[in-house]
Design a protein that fits this description.
Strand order of the largest sheet of chain A: 1-6-5-3-4
Largest sheet of chain B: 5 strands, mixed
Oligomer: heterodimer
Order of helices and strands of chain B: HEEEEHHEHEH
Strand content of chain B: 5-15%
Strand content of chain A: 5-15%
Strand order of the largest sheet of chain B: 4-3-2-5-6
Largest interface: A-B, 69 and 57 residues
Structural class of chain A: alpha/beta
Radius of gyration of chain A: 26 Å
Number of helices of chain A: 7
């Protein structure tokens, strides 16, 4: 008589599809991740409904953090000569007496956030020892000593005849005078068009913009 | 009971002398690989910055010293919005009038200001000029139609509507961006950001003191 037997079931699960999927996800994230440049100054930008892409090269970024310190960044991935042009310009106009080696260092400073008087010291500090979070920021509030104005001027001269975008990246908690000071420095250089860096936010339902967008899609 | 039977009398009987080639399993234990894979996924998920920054364009006017170069706006179609401490918004319509009998200085917040802007816009539209032969009006309508504005027919009615934004020194940058954003959301075509006046600073200060805003 044949005896009834339970079929033997293996406890081993075939993990191949699982592994396939997980590695697919892994590949996606590796590809999608864009490492941020080492920003040691924490800036949380406010949100806006505009979804325009940000220019990443041929641009100058002026940032200010929550304690209203202003930093100056040149974004020129393709052309190193811009950095040299800017620092040479600053060196001559401000009589800083920087050496060529010191001026070469400027390219490696991602965010400049010191007054002119401390610039020499900053450029002599090795890259890894630079602590932007401890810097005092570029003076901008005083109208007689608005150093940001000089930086903007140097950048405009260096990029003369080329497209140059000005980006303002501010922390949401910073006070309005910092923003006003930055706008003032730009205005003095006849730079009246600039972009504010924001993070994307959804469009409120039922608002006029929402209706406009809906109409455009039709 | 329901237990898995191991070996025993199931399967072939292995008689003495019957030798079978040892079958090597083709299966590889993938557990460590999966472990590592998920560890990496977790790492990349956390480091990935999904929200890419966007930009808000801002065009500022040049300083003009000559009075005749200044843009004139109609009093009745202006809305002045001031930004103060603690995310507070203050506004008045037309000219600032603070007397014993009349006071058009009001306080609001970022939630309610949208309604204020829209109401004022509607009010201006209802009083707007209907002269369709005006070249400025024609240009305005054309632009609105090109932009795909569903309300383009009313474009020149809202032409006069101007919002003046005046942040005070205690307003945060977020407040400024929020109010500029509000202009986009409500499709306000004309707005200006100018320096706050002392009278207004005083009024805000008084309001803040009475409301206990620090």
């Amino acid at each position: 008589m044949p005896s009834v037997k339970m079929p033997r079931k293996s406890t081993v699960v075939d993990m191949t599809p699982f592994v396939d999927v997980s590695f697919l996800i892994l590949t996606f994230f590796i590809m999608a991740t864009k490492f941020k440049p080492p920003e040691s100054v924490d800036i949380k930008t406010p949100g806006s409904v505009l979804s325009q892409e940000l220019p990443t090269h041929n641009a100058v970024m002026i940032s200010f953090d929550s304690s209203n310190r202003v930093f100056f960044t040149v974004l020129s991935e393709k052309d190193d000569s811009k950095y040299e042009a800017i620092i040479t310009n600053i060196n001559t106009t401000q009589n800083l007496g920087l050496s060529d080696a010191e001026m070469k260092q400027f390219k490696k400073v991602y965010m400049t956030g010191v007054p002119f008087a401390n610039l020499k010291e900053l450029l002599n500090t090795p890259e890894k020892d630079q602590k932007p979070s401890e810097w005092p920021g570029i003076p901008y509030a005083d109208s007689t000593n608005n150093q940001l104005e000089w930086w903007v001027r140097a950048a405009k001269e260096a990029f003369q005849g080329e497209k140059l975008d000005f980006l303002i990246k501010g922390d949401g908690h910073s006070k309005y005078p910092a923003f006003a000071g930055v706008m003032d420095a730009l205005k003095k250089n006849d730079q009246l068009k600039y972009h504010l860096v924001t993070s994307l936010e959804g469009i409120p339902n039922g608002s006029e913009l929402d209706r406009l967008e809906a109409r455009k899609k039709q | 009971m329901a237990s898995i039977e191991e070996g025993g009398d199931s399967g072939h009987k292995k008689g003495p002398g019957v030798k079978k080639a040892k079958k090597l399993s083709t299966r590889v234990d993938m557990t460590p690989m999966v472990d590592l894979g998920f560890l990496l996924i977790t790492f990349f998920v956390f480091t990935a910055t999904m929200s890419s920054p966007t930009a808000l364009d801002l065009n500022m006017p040049k300083d003009v010293n000559d009075d005749k170069d200044k843009t004139e706006v109609k009093q009745s179609s202006t809305l002045t919005i001031m930004l103060g401490k603690g995310n507070q918004v203050y506004y008045y319509e037309g000219m600032l009038e603070v007397t014993e009998s009349k006071n058009n200085f009001k306080s609001s917040n970022f939630k309610d200001i949208r309604k204020v802007i829209l109401d004022k816009k509607k009010d201006v539209i209802s009083r707007g000029k209907t002269d369709l032969t005006d070249p400025q009006c024609i240009a305005e309508r054309k632009q609105a139609e090109k932009d795909g504005d569903p309300d383009w027919e009313n474009a020149c009615l809202a032409m006069d509507f101007v919002v003046v934004i005046k942040p005070d020194k205690d307003a945060t940058y977020k407040n400024v961006v929020d109010i500029l954003d509000e202009m986009t959301i409500n499709q306000v075509k004309r707005y200006a950001m100018i320096k706050i006046e002392d009278v207004e600073v005083e009024l805000i200060k008084k309001t803040e003191e009475s409301a206990g805003i620090k």
